Amino acid sequence: xxxxxxxxxxxxxxxxxxxxxxxxxxxxxxxxxxxxxxxxxxxxxxxxxxxxxxxxxxxxxxxxxxxxxxxxxxxxxxxxxxxxxxxxxxxxxxxxxxxxxxxxxxxxxxxxxxxxxxxxxxxxxxxxxxxxxxxxxxxxxxxxxxxxxxxxxxxxxxxxxxxxxxxxxxxxxxxxxxxxxxxxxxxxxxxxxxxxxxxxxxxxxxxxxxxxxxxxxxxxxxxxxxxxxxxxxxxxxxxxxxxxxxxxxxxxxxxxxxxxxxxxxxxxxxxxxxxxxxxxxxxxxxxxxxxxxxxxxxxxxxxxxxxxxxxxxxxxxxxxxxxxxxxxxxxxxxxxxxxxxxxxxxxxxxxxxxxxxxxxxxxxxxxxxxxxxxxxxxxxxxxxxxxxxxxxxxxxxxxxxxxxxxxxxxxxxxxx
Length: 416
Fold this sequence. Notes:
By secondary structure, the protein is of the alpha/beta class. The chain is about 30% helix and about 25% strand. The radius of gyration is 21 Å and the shape is globular. The termini are far apart. The model has no long low-confidence stretch (mean pLDDT about 95).
């Protein structure tokens, strides 16, 4: 059924008895054209675009838990395209453009809110670096505005501009950035894919890959063997573990990234704000809660929870730029598993195993990349050719030296 204002009014007047499940709960078939391992945002978006853009509907999305149980429901909901390098910026700008039409595309309210994102700077050198980034964004067709201190005061008057250690001198503003309701993205893509015939199979964990003469022809699961012409993996922080089942070792480490939500407050933060002298980012949800996060935990883990030193570090960053949030009570926190690549940039590529494809290594950028990731991954699976904005996101780039080192922080994931 299609959602509309008329449908809401009709159901409200008839006791809400006509609503149908957003997607089916089918039993897995023996054979599919494409199996997508991972029912998070990227997997569901890939299935949606495979069906919608390429007409490939004999597709199964296999999720070991329930839809929305992974990173797509465990993030700070930020969308942006303020990257700098040619291998990344066009990709994330495509993603932001897809975000802007997403709700109409899959007929679901994802609460896309383009209130802007500001990256604060605290020194002249940082200002020059942000000016360079803003110019690079403009060359790629993205929007950027370099604001001075007065510009930031007008935009975010509640910040602490008198901090002697971290003086706020300005910021790089992307007006089209913002936030999206994270779990609604999963539900919307699931509904869009299901409406076009894709089977979304929950509680179906992949335990191995089926090989025939060196080619991947399916997967083994806790619900039996399922065959496929092509198998596409996108399992975020579990990438290393799942791909090891196919005998592959990836240039990836898994780390926990924590996020936090405060009690509901009156409007105090206009959009998304990031701290330039530390790793801290914050926005305010439609319900009034402050949503914020910071650095990854410094050790490898597959647990969806973090440790207290990072909580302290994140709160210190928030207090440095906005001391009054120290009076807010923290309601809850959670952890998502980040698959941190060695250069801070992702992969969308075919593997050395025929019939097996990989999407991963998203570091901090997984949620904001969801639409473009699905779009480009679907293009790769359907055509066996890379999309124009994903030609540098290759698995072999460390062998060839063609890294996409967005942060320039070195080859250790804990430094990103």
